[in-house]
Amino acid sequence: MTKVTWLALAPAVAIVAPLTAQEVLTNQTVLALAGAGVGDQIIVAKIRSSATSFDVSTGQLIELKKRGVSDAVIAAMIEVAGKPVDVAAAGTSDSPDPNAPHAPGVYLLDESVAPARMVRIDPAASNQMKTGGMLGYALTGGIAKIKMNIVLPGASARSRTTLARPKFYFYLGQTNTVPGMPGMYWMGLPGLSPSSPNEFSFVHFEAKKDHREASVGRIGIGGVATGVQDNQRLTLTYADVRPGVFSVTPSGDLAPGEYAFVYSIAGGMNGMSRIFDFSVGPSAAAAR
To answer: Which of 18, 63, 226, 254 has its CA 20 to 30 A from that of 156?
Structure first.
């Protein structure tokens, strides 16, 4: 590289160095590169050789264009945003650093081991829907309600924490598992990708001998009510880490028991759902 070329690239090197340490490019870092006068060819090369987390929604594309990002750079951002995450190439999914590349999903931060690690919660499948109270409904002319419960197999979830207020990370729309189809991981259909933890229900499940249940609907004289019932819906708090990545914690301490984050469409948990279940261990209150 000649002296002239090196001097021309000096502003780019000053900005790219911290990006390399973080290993993740976002809309803001592209704006920083473009604002520093880095050429399109260099920015596109950096995009294609780095882990990225771009928001390429229509509003963000308009904002990028208004702030001087070229068509070539925006096109490169859209191209990499449509590619699946290669965890082996980009980094391991159990990294406790929320800025490290992770495949889409819900993760529990396991702080019971040293060093801490992210545990990806596999979505559980409901194997049946139970109804109860049909006799009472018939005898009272609909005054007593028929209850509808969703059922998860097994008395306990595979993922477990001993903390009363564990921390989770949601990796949502920033990555795809099928090129050009951002919702394929979440519902198996393109375009059905959640954009924030606010689209999830935080649910307490009642543990039975060989399964877990949560109430998702009632039928009474006044009609049908579907969705998670208020007495089993819990509240959570969340904060942005970077576009598409959120840190999530329960709003209060959790008693030992069975819980799940539920992402649903088409009528609540009796419709299409992804259920990310976890258990809080018996020593949770003391461990916090």
So the answer is: 226
Rounded Cα distance, 199 and 186, in Å: 12
Return d(Cα 54, Cα 101) in angstroms, integer: 12
pTM: predicted TM-score of the whole model, two decimal places: 0.60
The neighbour count for residue 140, using CB atoms within 10 Å, is 13
Give CA–CA dist 275/125, Å, rounded. 7
Neighbours of 25 (CB within 10 A): 24
N- to C-terminal Cα separation, the chain: 56
Long-range contacts of 18-25 (CB under 8 A, 24+ apart): 19/46, 19/50, 20/50, 22/99, 23/50, 23/51, 23/90, 23/91, 23/99, 23/100, 23/101, 24/50, 24/51, 24/52, 24/53, 24/99, 24/100, 24/101, 24/242, 25/50, 25/51, 25/52, 25/53, 25/54
The whole-number mean pLDDT for each consecutive block of 10 residues of the chain, a chain of 288 residues, reads 38 36 74 91 84 85 92 87 56 78 89 88 72 47 59 89 94 55 56 81 89 69 51 84 91 94 64 82 51
What residue spans define the domains of the chain? 3-81, 105-287
Question: Count of CB atoms within 10 A of residue 132's CB?
Answer: 14
Q: Please name every residue paired with 56 in a beta bridge, in sequence order, or none if there are none.
A: none
In this structure, are residues 217 and 226 in contact, taking their beta carbons and an 8 Å threshold?
yes
Say if residue 135 is exposed, middle or buried (CB neighbours under 10 Å; 0-12, 13-18, 19+): exposed
CA dihedral over 261, 263, 269, 273, signed as positive or negative = negative
